[in-house]
Amino acid sequence: MLNNIGLPGLLLIAVIVLVLFGRGKVSSLMGEVGKGITAFKQGVKDGNDEIETSRTTRDVTPESEKEKV
User: Fold this and answer.
1) CATH number for the domain that contains residue 11
2) Average pLDDT of 43-52?
């Protein structure tokens, strides 16, 4: 069903949404979507940094522990 939607169909949908909700509401919604994407990317980056930090701190073994092995 959605395979047949082309550029004219997408433009028609965009115009209908713009008429129904108004320019201000659509632009504020898009701003919120942008902020959400930015927050998601930052969270992924922080998670990767945390994983990398835990790997490097876990790989370092204190000298007292090396003597026991």
Assistant:
1) 1.20.5
2) 91
State which residues form the domain around 53. Answer: 2-59
Single-letter amino acid, residue 10: L
Q: How many CB atoms lie within 10 A of CB 21?
A: 13
In a domain, 14, yes or no: yes
pTM of the shown model:
0.55
Which distant-in-sequence residues (6+ apart) come within 8 Å of 21 by Cβ?
29
User: Is 67 within the bounds of a domain?
Assistant: no
Place of tokens 């069903």: 1
The residue that leads in pLDDT, 58 or 59, is 58
Question: Contact at 8 Å (CB) between 17 and 26?
Answer: yes
